Structures are given as C-alpha cells and as structure tokens.
C-alpha cells in the first residue's frame, strides 16, 4: 500500500460546522411531540428502608400522567448486567429503581411522568415516602470493620472480590532489598463531569412494536444489549440512537437506572418519555470514579535497581457493581514502564453507601501511576539518588520490548527514556537544580517533579476479554457504501462525543478509497443501520476502527478497480484509486472517475461478467494486541512554605501515541486529558460526610472544576513510534494525558519542600494538605 | 403552578411573543418555546456558562433569568452569529484553532468572546483566562479556546482600527 494521503494530516474537523452554528443535535434538542417529562425522586439517605410510598396527591395534580415505583420496576425487569466483571466478583443486585432498601443518597425511588418537567417536579413534592434510615458506611475502612452495616446479602463483609496477582518471588526480593519504602495513599473520588449531563428519550413505536431509545451514550450497541436484557426484550426490538454527545469521558458507558425507568414509562403510556438529568442529580446518580486506598511497598538494591513491588489496595466501589465498576487496569499497569519481575498485588473491592463507581478517562491507570511514581521518588531520595537518575536506570530500554510485565500485559514498543530525556531537557533540568539551590537560599521553594507512564490502549482481542468474563468484544466495525455520485457513506456504531471520530474515520476511508474526506459522509451512533459495535472507550476506537475501515475499504476499492478495468479494458492490477479517479499507475491519462465506476455499480452495468451490482462492504476487525503509549510529565511548582499555597508554573508532557491519524486532534485530546489530570490532582473531590452519609459538595458551585484561569498553558511534545502490532501503527491517545498528572505535581511539591522532609500521600493536593504535611514534618523534625 | 404572563422580546433580530408561566427559565424559553437549541444547559447553577446569551449586548447566564425578565429586551444566541451563511469570525477562529471538541460549551464561549470584542476588550494570556472564568469546558483544557479568542479579538480590534 502506498502512503495514505490523509493519514497524518491535520484535517479540520467535519463535526465543527454544525457545532459552531448551534446546529448540533444533543439529547435535549430532540423534541418529540406529546412527550412526557420525567422527574425522579431519589433517596435522601445513604441507606434506608423504604416503608411506604404515597403518590395519591401527585396523581391528582393536573398534568401528571403516571407514577412509577420500585416495586413495579423490580417485578418487570432484570437487574442491570455487568459488562466487565472484576473476576470472581460476588453479584450486587442493582435494579433500575430501589425497592425495599435504597443504598446510596440519590438512588431512584420513585418517578413521575408529566406534561413538562416543571409539573413533574411539582408532583414529586407531593409524594410522601416513608423512610427508615439504616446504619451506613462511607469509608472502605469502616465497611471492613467487624459488625459494619452490610449492604448486600450476596456480599458478606462488604467485599465484592478479594484476589491477588503474584509474579516472581516478591517475598524473597523484599528480604533481599537493600532499601524499601512504603506509603499509604488515598485517591480522591471524582467525576468525569461532562458539561452535558446524562439524558434519555424513550418511545414505543406502535407501528413496529419496538422500543426506541435516544440516549447520551458512548456505547449505543452495548446500551441496547443491556437494556433489552433488563426489559426482557429481544435486542432486535430495541433501537438505541446516540445523537451528538456533549462529553462523556467514560461516564456514559452502558445502561443506567434512568434508561430503564424511561423505557418502562414509554411502554406503559405509549408516549415518548424524556428525562434530562439536572446537575444536582448528576452528582448523585452518574458514575463516580477513582476512589481507592493503596498501601504500597517498593524495594531496590544498593545501586538503585528496582527489585520488587507489593501493593495492598482497596477500591471504594460505592453501593453497587455498575456496568463497568472497579478498574482492572490498576493492577495490570501498576509496574509501569520499569524493569520489574517480582511483585505481589492484593486487591479488595469494597462496598460503601455511595454512588456506584464507573469508568473515567485513565480508568485505573491514573490511580496506579500516582502511587507508584510518588513512592519511586521517595525510594530515590532514600538511596540518595536524583529521581531522574533512578528512572533512567530502571526504565525499560527499546531493545527489551516487547516486555511482559508482572501482571501479564505485553508492552509492544517505545523508547521510554527518550520521553523522559526530552521532558527533562525542556525544563532545563540540570540548570534547574543549580538554580533551585540559589532560590532556596533566598527562601524560595521551587520544585520539579516527574512522572513516567506507560499506557494500555485498546484491548488485546475479544478472546482475551472473553477469558476475563467481559460481556463485550474488542472489535469495531463499519459499513461502507459508495453512492451514485461517487461519495462514500460510512456507518459506525461509535457515537460522537468530542473525540473527532467522524473526521479521523473519514480520513482513513478517504485515503483507502482515493477520495477526499469531505466526500465521506459519516452515519453514527444508531444501532439500527450500523453493524454491531462495541463503542468509544478504552482508547480503542481508532485502533479497532482503522482495522475495520481498512478491510471494508479494501473490498470496495478492489471491486472499483475491477469495474474500472472492465470499462477501460485494462488489467485491474495495473490500476490505482486516487483523487477521485481510477487510473493506470504507469499512464494516468488512462482513467475513469470513481463517480462513473460507482454509477456502473449502482445501475448494474457496465460490469465485468459475474460481478454483482453495488459497492458496499461491512467489515469487523478484532485487534490481536493492545498497543502501549507512554510518556513523561515534568511539572514545576513554587510553594509558600508557611501557608502551603503553591503555583503550578510549568507543565510539560512528552508522549508517544504511535502513528497520529490527525495531529491536530491528537494534540486536542492530550490537552483535554492533561486538564482533567490536573483537575483531579489539584481541585476535584466528591466529599461525603462520614456521620450523615451525605454528599457535601454535589453542585457545580462546590465541586471545583477548573476554569481557564485555574490552569497553566501546557507544553506538549510528541514522539511517534508506530506500534508493530496494530493497523497503521496506531496507538490510543484519549486517556494518556490524565495518567501522570497527580504524581508529577505531588513530586514537584515534595521536591520544592525537600529541606522540610515533606511527604504527601493524598489527593487532591491542596494548600491545606501541604500545610498539614509541613506541620507534621516540623513536629517530627 | 405559577401565573402565565406574556413575554415579548427580540431574539437575533426577530420579534417573538409568547405566553408562558412566570417561572419559566429564559434558557428553557429559548430552547423549548422558540426551538433555538443552540443555547445549552450545563448546570442550572450559574456556573458552567453553557447557557450564555447576550442580553442587549451583555453576556448573561440564561439559566439564572426568568423569561419574563427578558420582556422588552433584545437577545443574541449562537444562531444569530452567522445564521446559515459563512461562519462568523469567532466561529472561524474556533474552527481554525481546534477550540472545540464535543461542542456543548462552545456557543457560550462564542458569545462571551463576542461580548469582549464588542466592548473593545483585547485581552490575552492570563488576563483573558480570568475573563473567561465564567465558562467551563471539560474537553479542551482551554488552551485552544484561549488561542482562538486571542486571535479573534486581535482581528476584531484590527477591524475597528481599519474601519
């Protein structure tokens, strides 16, 4: 194959024109006639028995159509399925609405359908729910105590799963290690917090006896599968359509209780039912992420060779195992980019009376990077080594790849040290160390911190997922169809949520078909009319999608060449498709337009003998391997050693995501992920009150998503090592920017405050946490 | 329930009159009475700025106003920037700088930027970032938004000098 003309081009996005004009179509922009609007009553307690629900007064209110309670939902539906269970998990029975007992503040308890949302909310106020509050647990430590309140009869002791990954001889290495350090780290509970909240419109189509569900989702086909199962329907009788999605970040994967509630009410009322999540509900209903407690030990020999890692960690799952639930990648990527053969990783997934956990950009990888990289710095300090030197010594070299890490993941390619060196030179590391000494003498505390990561992108085959119990595959699929005018239509089940897939898929198809990307129309996100699809998550869409496009476009191109060969009376093998034409390679003057070839396929003549009409192909591609991106963040901070206040002065990320389909979009993805990484490291935390079990800061006023004024300008640099194991050498890129932020900033603060011997061990890093650490260090010192 | 009142106003140069409940939010009025869906709702808490419109040229959060409060006023929404014609300069700047991803927050940023230009404010860097703190974006990390608006404000200032 010749070099693909649009691969690596910063093509302006196809999505932009409609979005800039306000002509995008988001969920709440879909206005069905005669729609009913839902308001959902939610449990105000963290744990309560629902004794009685009296909706009589609500039903008398003008404009109220009907009320749905948990008893009906439980009788008529199956519990929500788990798409990717943590192997060995005990089931938590999670229905679309609580019946009997509600287990987190915000769990749906009753729903009202009315002529508009204002009336529906009026009606909620008229519903009396008699609750009996039950004892609750908010922290994983409390949940594990003997005698702790139990959330589910199926989960004794509140431990959904406990398991260990072991490689080599960790005990022996720990005994051998000249130096070991350990630390206990608390990772904050955060939210992906897209600006568009969740939403759903359910409609019973009387004419076809099917259920149509518009949903703001990353995974239309997976949502359809789960919803059909929950409703005891055939998948064929359910259609899911994702319109433009206003941000997702992992939070909009799979079915949610509200999807089931809206569907039941649409079936009952035979009217479209719309639910738009308000922001207060969002913080109490949409998946939370990240929260965990790690007790990590690492050890090295006297020269600073990393020998061993042992982690015992607790994941705070919340009240139920949702469609994705706890991340597996925490364990899989704990070893990071280092030469490490001996490890023991012990994990427990623990229930608390909080919103169920789900996926969030960097899912698991941000967590393990934070604990490992912060502890690596402590180990280097203990050894009296510069943290950069320690990493130089232990990073895997290109000639050591492919490398199977202690958890079984096989890193494919890259030059990890090159990323580190590039980032260090950007900050002027050697000069910085000299200046730092001078600043310290002036009483200024400036520090640099670094964090190295390697990133799991895509899944290594559907068979791999199957072995771990996943209820989805690793593949992606497209249908490509030429029209009479010589343009291509590409159908994909992947929805559009900011990632630029419409543009990058068009670039791939155009390159392979000899077209311009403007001549590739994208139809996306509708389960009807797109082949089975997994969806956009896990930094997998471009890898798997490119493989599917390559196969489908290859079939169409070959057929176009055969038809053109017939028209031109030339051997098809002598022809190529380029710039809208099929032409002889050795004599471009012998040519026919793709438009004319497409028309021949459409008319059915002229065609070569035995050739079927039409130019259409559907292809699936199942990637055989994951691809591993990598990078290094270097952060520079200045800290006020009296107050703990600090400024993030520089933020440098050097990363490698393999072949870049569209460098402009790659850069945008990385910038956005970096912002979210910094947000979770410095600003954001969902705080629950341990006594009352209430979410303390569940509004946008109190949950501090950063504004433009809160973030520095980022300094990005790209390396490009094509993966040897994926189509076109593509690696995923959506998540990487989130991974290394927390450790880099933590290490920078600790570096700045090195004279005080300050260690930080919780997120977010705030002036208060630094001040407390300083006070603690002074008390010790 | 609340009383129904008449709201007469101009939106994007066109006169509208509707009878609505007095508690109707301005953003719901624009979106669901007038079918102008380009103005988005992100929080209804006055924080995210996705619902930003211009009221007599001033940026306001339309989730924090009731529709009757806009009676007699003139409103500009994203639909009023370019209509179906060529992109407005601020829209073009956003496209060129890849300053949008999911596009949900974009209309609010566009109108905030137009208000800056109309007031002759030509900020850049940290000062511009402060000025934009009333609008949240979760996708871009702001860098490209800041670049796009810097570019647009420079262009707008140049246009005024030339004109």
CATH level-1 class of the largest domain in chain B: Mainly Alpha
Quaternary organisation:
heterodimer
CATH architecture of the largest domain in chain B: Orthogonal Bundle
At CATH level 3, the topology of the largest domain in chain A is Aldehyde Oxidoreductase, domain 4
Helix vs. strand class of chain A? alpha+beta
Query: Major sheet of chain B: order of its strands?
Result: 2-1-5-3-4
Which CATH architecture of the largest domain in chain A would you pick? 2-Layer Sandwich
CATH class of the largest domain in chain A: Alpha Beta
Major sheet size, sense and barrel closure of chain A: 7 strands, mixed
CATH H level of the largest domain in chain A: which superfamily? Aldehyde oxidase/xanthine dehydrogenase, molybdopterin binding domain
As for the number of domains of chain B, it is 2
Q: Could you give a quick summary of the protein structure above?
A:
The complex is a heterodimer of chains A (781) and B (163). With 781 residues, chain A is α+β, with helices and mostly antiparallel strands.
In words, what does this structure look like?
The complex is a heterodimer of chains A (781) and B (163). Chain A is an alpha+beta fold and 781 residues long. Chain A has three domains: 16-22 and 475-621, Aldehyde oxidase/xanthine dehydrogenase, molybdopterin binding domain (Aldehyde Oxidoreductase, domain 4, 2-Layer Sandwich); 32-134 and 194-248 and 252-285, Aldehyde oxidase/xanthine dehydrogenase, a/b hammerhead (Aldehyde Oxidoreductase, domain 3, Alpha-Beta Complex); 292-460 and 624-780, Aldehyde Oxidoreductase, domain 4, CATH 3.30.365.10. In chain A, 30% of the residues lie in helices and 24% in strands. Chain A has a seven-stranded mixed beta sheet with strand order 3-5-1-12-9-10-11. A five-stranded mixed beta sheet of chain A has the order 7-15-14-13-8. In chain A, strands 18-26-27-28 form a four-stranded mixed beta sheet, sandwiched between helices. In chain A, strand 27, helix 19 (663-682) and strand 28 form a beta-alpha-beta unit. In chain A, helix 11 (365-383) crosses helix 12, helix 17 crosses helix 18 (594-603) and helix 19 (663-682) packs across helix 21. Chain B is an alpha+beta fold and 163 residues long. Chain B has two domains: 4-77, Roll (Ubiquitin-like (UB roll)), CATH 3.10.20.30; 82-162, Orthogonal Bundle (DNA polymerase, domain 1). Chain B is built from six helices and five strands, in the order ββαβββααααα. Chain B has helices at 26-33, 79-82, 89-96, 106-118, 125-131, 143-162, and strands spanning 4-11, 14-21, 52-55, 58-61, 74-76. In chain B, strands 2-1-5-3-4 form a five-stranded mixed beta sheet, sandwiched between helices. In chain B, helix 3 runs antiparallel to helix 6 and helix 4 packs parallel to helix 6. The mean pLDDT of chain B is 96. Chains A and B meet through helix 1 and helix 19 of A and helix 2, helix 3, helix 4, helix 5 and helix 6 of B.
């Amino acid at each position: 194959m010749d070099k693909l003309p649009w691969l690596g081009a910063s093509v302006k996005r196809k999505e932009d024109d409609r979005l800039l004009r306000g002509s995008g179509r988001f969920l709440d922009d879909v206005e069905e006639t005669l729609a009913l609007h839902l308001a959902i009553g939610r449990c105000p307690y963290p744990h309560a028995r629902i004794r009685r629900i009296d909706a009589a007064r609500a039903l008398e209110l003008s404009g109220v159509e009907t009320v749905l309670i948990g008893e009906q939902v439980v009788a008529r539906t199956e519990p929500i399925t788990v798409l990717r269970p943590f192997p060995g998990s005990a089931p938590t029975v999670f229905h679309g609405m609580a019946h009997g007992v509600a287990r987190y503040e915000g769990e749906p308890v009753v729903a009202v359908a009315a002529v508009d949302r204002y009336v529906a909310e009026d009606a909620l106020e008229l519903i009396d729910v008699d609750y009996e509050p039950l004892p609750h647990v908010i922290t994983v430590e409390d949940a594990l105590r003997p005698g702790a309140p139990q959330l589910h009869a199926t989960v004794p002791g509140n431990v959904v799963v406990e398991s260990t990954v072991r490689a080599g001889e960790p005990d022996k290495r720990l005994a051998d290690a000249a130096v070991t350090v350990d630390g206990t780290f608390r990772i904050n509970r955060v939210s992906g917090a897209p600006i568009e909240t969740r939403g759903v419109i359910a409609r019973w189509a009387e004419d076809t006896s099917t259920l149509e569900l518009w949903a703001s989702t990353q995974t239309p086909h997976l949502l359809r599968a789960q919803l059909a199962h929950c409703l005891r329907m055939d998948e064929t009788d359910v259609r899911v359509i994702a319109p433009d999605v206003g941000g997702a970040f992992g939070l909009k994967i799979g079915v949610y209780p509200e999807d089931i509630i809206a569907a039941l009410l649409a079936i009952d009322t035979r009217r479209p039912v719309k639910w738009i999540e308000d922001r207060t509900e969002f913080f109490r209903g949409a998946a939370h992420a990240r929260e965990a407690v790690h007790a990590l030990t690492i050890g090295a020999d006297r020269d600073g060779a990393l020998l061993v890692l042992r982690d015992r960690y607790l994941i705070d799952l919340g009240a139920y195992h949702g469609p994705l639930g706890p991340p597996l990648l925490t364990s899989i990527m704990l070893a990071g980019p280092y030469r490490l053969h001996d490890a023991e990783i012990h994990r427990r997934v623990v229930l608390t009376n909080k919103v169920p956990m789900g996926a969030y950009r960097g899912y698991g990888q941000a967590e393990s990077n934070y604990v490992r990289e912060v502890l690596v710095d402590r180990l280097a300090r203990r050894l009296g080594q510069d943290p950069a030197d320690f990493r130089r010594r232990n990073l895997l070299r290109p000639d050591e790849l492919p490398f199977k890490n202690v958890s079984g993941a096989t890193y494919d390619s890259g030059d990890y040290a090159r990323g580190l060196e590039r980032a260090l030179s950007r900050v002027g590391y050697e000069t910085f160390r000299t200046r730092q000494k001078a600043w310290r003498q002036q009483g200024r505390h400036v520090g640099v911190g670094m964090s190295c990561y390697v990133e799991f992108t895509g899944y290594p085959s559907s068979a791999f997922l199957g072995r771990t119990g996943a209820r989805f595959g690793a593949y992606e699929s497209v249908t490509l169809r030429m029209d009479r005018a010589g343009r291509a239509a590409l159908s994909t089940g992947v929805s559009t949520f900011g990632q630029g897939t419409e543009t990058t898929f068009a670039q791939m198809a155009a390159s392979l078909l000899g077209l311009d990307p403007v001549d590739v129309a994208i139809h996306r996100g509708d389960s009807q009319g797109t082949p089975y699809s997994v969806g956009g998550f896990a930094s997998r869409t471009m890898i798997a999608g490119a493989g599917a496009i390559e196969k489908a476009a290859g079939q169409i191109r070959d057929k176009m060449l055969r038809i053109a060969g017939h028209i031109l009376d030339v051997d098809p093998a002598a022809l190529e498709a380029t710039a809208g034409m099929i032409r002889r390679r050795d004599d471009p003057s012998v040519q026919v337009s793709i438009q004319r070839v497409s028309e021949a396929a459409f008319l059915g003549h002229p065609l070569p003998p035995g050739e079927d009409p039409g130019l259409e192909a559907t292809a699936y591609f199942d990637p055989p391997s994951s691809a591993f991106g990598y990078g290094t963040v270097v952060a520079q901070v200045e800290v006020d050693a009296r107050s703990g206040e600090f400024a993030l002065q520089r933020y440098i990320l050097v990363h490698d995501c393999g072949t870049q389909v569209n460098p402009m979009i790659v850069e945008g993805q990385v910038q956005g992920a970096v912002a979210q990484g910094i947000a979770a490291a410095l600003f954001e935390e969902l705080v629950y009150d341990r006594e009352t079990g209430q979410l303390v800061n569940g509004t946008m006023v109190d949950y501090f998503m950063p504004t433009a004024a809160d973030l520095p300008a980022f300094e990005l640099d790209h390396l490009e090592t094509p993966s040897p194991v994926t189509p076109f050498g593509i690696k995923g890129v959506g998540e990487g920017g989130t991974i290394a932020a927390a450790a880099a900033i933590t290490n920078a603060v600790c570096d700045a405050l090195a004279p005080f011997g300050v260690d930080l061990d919780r997120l977010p890093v705030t002036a208060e946490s630094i001040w407390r650490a300083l006070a603690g260090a002074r008390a010790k010192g | 329930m609340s009383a129904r009142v008449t709201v007469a106003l101009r939106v994007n140069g066109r006169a509208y009159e509707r009878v609505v409940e007095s508690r109707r939010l301005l953003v719901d009025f624009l979106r669901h009475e007038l079918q102008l869906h380009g103005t988005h709702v992100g929080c209804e808490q006055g924080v995210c700025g996705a619902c930003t419109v211009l009221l007599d040229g001033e940026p306001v959060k339309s989730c924090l106003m009731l529709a009757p409060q806009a009676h007699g006023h003139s409103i500009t929404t994203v639909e009023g920037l370019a209509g179906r014609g060529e992109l407005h300069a601020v829209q073009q700047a956003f496209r060129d700088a890849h300053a949008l991803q999911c596009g949900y927050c974009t209309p609010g940023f566009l109108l905030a930027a137009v208000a800056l230009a109309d007031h002759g404010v030509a900020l850049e860097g940290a000062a511009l970032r402060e000025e934009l703190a009333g609008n949240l974006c979760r996708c871009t990390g702001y860098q490209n938004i800041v670049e796009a608006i810097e570019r647009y404000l420079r262009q707008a200032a140049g246009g005024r000098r030339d004109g």
